[in-house]
Amino acid sequence: MHAPDGFIDAPTSIAMGALAAGGVGLALRKAGADLDEKRVPLAGLVSAFIFAVQMLNFPVAGGTSGHLMGGVLAAVLLGPWVGSLCVTVVVVVQALLFADGGLTALGFNVVNMALVTALGGYLVFVGLRKVLPKTKGGVVVASGVAAGISVVLTSLAFSLEYAIGGTGGASVATVTTSMVSVHVLIGIGEGIITALTVGAVLASRPDLVWGARDLPAATLAPDDLVGAAS
Predict the structure, then answer these.
(1) pTM of the model
(2) What is the DSSP letter of 213?
(3) pLDDT tens readout for residues 180-193
């Protein structure tokens, strides 16, 4: 998913940089109201966790591999604004220190990997919560499904941006078909990892899960959610 330098033309790169700056600026303003003494250290832990697991690739198909993006995971644990900032930090550090994604494509990568996954994925999560049971299990299922869908949304955004300013020789139809088909499989892995992680935190510290704030206090008692998510 990390786009390299030269993957999109200069006008599109500039436009994506402006869009990323606007989105991150909005997230910075909104995140202030969501942070308290508990969530500041949790944001650091979530960022470190996402950074670490993004370094681990799992096989998908045809020799390709995928890794966790973490947008929905961060958003469910911390709220969408703080979550999008956590993934943004990870993407920027990867680009600056590990050459993982080009610097001219940094805005492109921040939009796709941080804003689309965290903000777009969280909207899916909220929609699923409205129809699923108001239980911890419902939160876990919504987290996993939203995480999987967020990966597909990201691949669609990637393909749309390629259609606007992509410099590769492949046709838009070829890129879209390849991106979506591979990321459907990656989304399954993302959904499983997200559901297991959210389930584990809910089972031990449900008070730390932003996406479960609406559950009744009696529902948040520790239980065997890790086993249920497994």
Answers:
(1) 0.88
(2) T
(3) 888 898 899 899 99
| DSSP symbols for 53-104 | HHT--EE-STT-EE----HHHHHHHH-HHHHHHHHHHHHHHHHHHH--S-ST
Quick: pLDDT tens for 95-135: 999 888 889 999 999 999 999 999 999 999 999 999 999 99
Residues whose CB is less than 8 angstroms from the CB of residue 9 and which lie 6 or more positions away in sequence, other chains included: 165, 166, 167
d(CA 73, CA 67): 13
DSSP 187-201: HHHHHHHHHHHHHHH
User: Residues 6 or more apart from 128 whose CB is under 8 A from it?
Assistant: 141, 142, 145, 146
Q: How far apart are CA 126 and CA 130, in angstroms?
A: 7
Q: What is the largest CA-CA distance in the chain?
A: 57
Which whole-number Å values give the CA distances from 87 to 64, 73, 203, in the listed order?
A: 23, 10, 24
Which ranges of the chain would DSSP assign to H, the alpha helix? 10-31, 39-54, 71-78, 80-98, 106-110, 121-131, 136-165, 172-204, 225-229
Give me the amino acid identity at 146.
Answer: A
Closest CA to 32 of 78, 69, 99, 89: 78
Both tokens of residue 60? 């998908």
Residue with tokens 């909207």: 123
Asked if 143 contacts 211 with a C-beta cutoff of 8 angstroms, the reply is yes
Are 161 and 116 spatial neighbours (Cβ–Cβ below 8 Å)? Answer: no
Other C-beta atoms lying within 10 Å of the C-beta of residue 22: 13
